[in-house]
Amino acid sequence: MQSHSHAAMLMLSLFSLQEAEAWLQLLLDMLPALPARQLLDEVVPLALSKGQVNEPVLQRVSFHLAACSVAPTDACRLLRRPLVTLLRDSCPEVRHALLPGLGETLQVLAGVDDMHKEGVAADVHQALLALSAGLGNNWRSQQQLAEALHALPGLLGVDIIADHWAPYAFTLLLSGAAAVKPAAAACLGKLLRNCRKERPRTDLYCRIIRELAWGRSCFARLAYIQVCAAALPIFSSRWVKEHVLEGVLEMLSDEVPNVRLAALGLLPALKQTIRLPEDVEQLEQLTSAMTILMTDNDRDVSYAARSVHDTFKRTPLRVTGGSGLMELSGSMTGGSDVAAADKAKEEAEQTEMEFAKDEMEKLRIEWCSTGPERRSRRAAAGMTTGDGSSSNNNSGSGGSSSSSSSHGPMRKSNSRGKMDSHIG
Question: Distance between CA 424 and CA 417 in Å, rounded?
Answer without folding.
Answer: 16
